[in-house]
Amino acid sequence: MIVVNSIVLGAISLAIGGDRLLPVFFTRGLSLVGIVASLVWLHAHRRASQYNNYFLWSARELETYLADPVVTISRGATFSEGNEVVLTIDGEKKRLRLSWFARIAKTESFSYFAIAAFLLLYIALLLRL
Question: What is the mean pLDDT of residues 34-59?
Fold first, then answer.
């Protein structure tokens, strides 16, 4: 979807800044196409996030049925929340924690920010033209 949005923005840029001025309805149409593409992207991202949550929670549920406590997924949840986890490899303890920036800039929030940025840009272009 980022490629689609980049192509649409590139086409709008060429239409606005090119030697030959294209009709306003063309650039408005491209802005509308960009808005629709961003809304589709938003829906697809939200759906993928819901599936991701489902699979993670299902895997955590399966861990409870395994003999000997397996904590790969549940420990990963603790790690993703920014808390320190301790792994023992060959008798040696290894402490891991997300960096401060990774704790603040979560992937899902960043994705929504990128989608919103494209949407706002298309709306601004649509209102400007």
Answer: 94
